[in-house]
Amino acid sequence: MLIGYARTSTLEQKAGLEAQRESLKAIGCERVFEEQVSSVAIREALSEALRFSREGDTLVVTKLDRLARSVRHLGEIVETLEAQKVGLRVLDLGLDTSTATGKLMLNVLGSVAQFEREMMLERQREGIAKAKREGKYRGRKPTAMLKRQEAQRLAADGMSKRAIAQSLGVSERSVYRALKQP
Questions:
Q1: DSSP assignment of 54-118, as one string?
Q2: Cα torsion for 165, 166, 171, 177, to the nearest 10°?
Q3: 80 touches 109 (CB < 8 A)
Q4: HSE-up of 43 (CA within 13 Å, CB side)?
Q5: What CA dihedral angle connects 176, 45, 65 and 132, to 10 degrees?
Q6: What is the pLDDT of residue 12?
Q7: Alpha-carbon distance 36 to 98, whole Å?
Q8: List 9, 39, 70, 167, catalytic entry
Q9: Alpha helices in 10-59 (DSSP H)
Q10: Rounded-to-integer distance, Cα 102 and Cα 167, Å
Q11: pLDDT at site 123
């Protein structure tokens, strides 16, 4: 059975998720797991796809960066798949781990993808440092602090910090910081 996995980093990337879904369905994926979360977040749909996979199945993704956030993470996923005797296909690379060459190429390309990501982050940090020196960098808007009064009101009403975070759409840590402010 071909099992698809599609992911975008943000909720605004609906077209990207739709394109992945269409590509996976077009090659015959009978089941497609999808989610819209950052690669560093807990990815429930990926975990569910891995649990759903059985011996002889193949997990299919459109791009390698939709699956793993680093070479190490890719290795962990591949180990899990191999233990279950499940293959992996990456459509845009024409990669299939059911062959020795496919496994080698996966490791090489995973390393290249991680290198590219690290280079991009380095360029981003350099750009931010330059913008700060020139007084042009403002950073992102502190969304949690804008909701501080609401968080304080909910806390005064007896709501838990976790519930406040979920209600306001911010992290629990942000709620703790907001509640420390006078």
A1: -TT-EEEESSGGGT-SSHHHHHHHHHHHHHTT-EEEEGGGTEETTSHHHHHHHHHHHHHHHHHHH
A2: 0
A3: no
A4: 26
A5: -20
A6: 67
A7: 28
A8: 9
A9: 14-26, 44-52
A10: 45
A11: 93
pLDDT at 69: 75
The identity of residue 160, as a single letter, is S
Q: Which phi and psi (to 5°) does residue 4 adopt?
A: -95, 150
- List, for residues 98-123, the tens digit of each pLDDT value: 888 888 888 787 788 778 888 988 99
- Topology of 2-115 in CATH? Rossmann fold (3.40.50)
Task: Assess whether 38 carries a catalytic annotation.
Answer: no
pTM of the model: 0.61
Q: State the span(s) of the chain assigned CATH 3.40.50.1390.
A: 2-115
Distance CA 80, CA 66 (A): 17
Give dist(CA 165, CA 179) in Å, integer.
Answer: 11
Show the tokens assigned to 25. 């369905």
**138's tokens:** 């403002």
| Element holding 155 (H helix, E strand) | helix 148-156
pLDDT 10s digits, 117-160: 889 889 999 999 999 999 888 777 777 777 888 888 888 899 89
Other beta carbons within 10 angstroms of residue 66's beta carbon come to: 21
Which of 13-17, 34-38, 122-126 shows the lowest per-residue confidence on average (mean pLDDT)? 13-17
